């Protein structure tokens, strides 16, 4: 079954910098700082990648790969459409430039 997630899903994700609970090693540096996503925020967007119960939720980052690949595929389709349109517009511009040049030379 194809994923319903894609580019809109990825655009809704909010990368964060955070300090993870339970990572104070007693070295005077405090909680370990990390980057990623907050499980509680992701749960409403892609619940399949969130594990655990309230207060101890984690993310299956590997499972986000499928969502990211789908988003890249959708974005590639958009890029290819824009490239085609750009190619058509350039050819149209060449035709119009030739017409203008012909009119100026008369």
Largest sheet: 2 strands, antiparallel
Cα-to-Cα separation, first versus last residue: 63 Å
**Sequence of secondary-structure elements:** HEEHEEH
Helix tally equals: 3
Strand order of the largest sheet: 1-2
Overall strand count:
4
Kindly provide the radius of gyration, computed on alpha-carbon positions and rounded to a whole number of angstroms: 25 Å
Helix content: 40-55%
Regions with pLDDT < 50 over 5+ consecutive residues?
none
Estimate the strand proportion: 5-15%
Structural class by helix and strand composition: mainly alpha
Mean pLDDT: 91
What does this structure look like?
The chain is mostly helical and 106 residues long. The chain contains three helices and four strands. It has helices spanning 7-12, 39-43, 64-104; strands spanning 16-19, 33-36, 50-51, 58-59. A two-stranded antiparallel ribbon has the order 1-2. Strands 3-4 form a two-stranded antiparallel ribbon. It is elongated, with a radius of gyration of 25 Å. The termini are far apart. The mean pLDDT is 91.
Please write out the topology:
Blueprint: H1 7-12, E1 16-19, E2 33-36, H2 39-43, E3 50-51, E4 58-59, H3 64-104
Antiparallel strand pairs: 1-2, 3-4
In short:
With 106 residues, the protein is mostly helical. It is built from three helices and four strands, in the order H-E-E-H-E-E-H.
Name the features:
106 residues, mainly alpha, two-stranded antiparallel ribbon, 4 strands, elongated
């Amino acid at each position: 079954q194809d994923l319903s997630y894609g580019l809109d899903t990825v655009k809704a994700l909010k990368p964060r910098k955070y300090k993870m609970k339970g990572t104070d090693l007693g070295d005077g540096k405090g909680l370990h700082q990390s980057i990623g996503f907050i499980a509680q925020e992701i749960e409403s967007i892609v619940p399949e990648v969130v594990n655990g119960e309230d207060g101890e939720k984690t993310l299956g980052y590997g499972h986000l790969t499928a969502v990211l690949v789908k988003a890249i595929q959708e974005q590639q389709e958009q890029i290819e459409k824009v490239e085609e349109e750009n190619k058509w517009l350039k050819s149209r511009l060449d035709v119009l430039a030739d017409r203008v040049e012909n009119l100026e030379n008369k």
